[in-house]
Amino acid sequence: KMDTKIDDELKLLEKNYPEAKYYLDYSNPLELLVAAILSAQCTDERVNKVTKSLFQKYRAAKDYAKADIKKFQQELIV
Fold first, then answer.
1. What is the rounded CA–CA span in Å between residue 5 and residue 22?
2. Which in 26, 36, 51, 73 has the greatest CB count within 10 A?
3. C-alpha 49: how far from its chain's center?
4. Whole-angstrom Cα distance, residue 64 to residue 68?
């Protein structure tokens, strides 16, 4: 299962980098992945503003996959 694999990777990172600080807001591995992808395009502060509503609407990977790209892009503008 993908979530288990991601959880294992996060645990490994936490073990090897115990002092690392997270600046992105997330509550599960999928949200962290989405936030990390978005943070490559803008600041973490901006990502945290956008993902508040984004994470409420898109709860699973299939939700992102089924999203209309134009509508999704508009949702990224806050």
1. 20
2. 51
3. 12
4. 9
**How many beta carbons lie within 10 A of that of residue 5, not counting itself?**
10
Q: Average pLDDT of each block of 10 consecutive residues along the chain (78 residues)? A: 76 89 89 92 93 94 95 88
DSSP letters for 13-52 = HHHH-TT----S--SSHHHHHHHHHHHTTS-HHHHHHHHH
Q: Which amino acid is at 71?
A: K
**Which residue matches tokens 């997330």?**
26
| Residue the block writes with tokens 């993908």 | 2
**In which residue are the tokens 């989405």 written?**
34
Q: At what angle do helices 44-57 and 29-39 cross, to 10 degrees?
A: 140
The residue whose two tokens read 């980098």 is 17
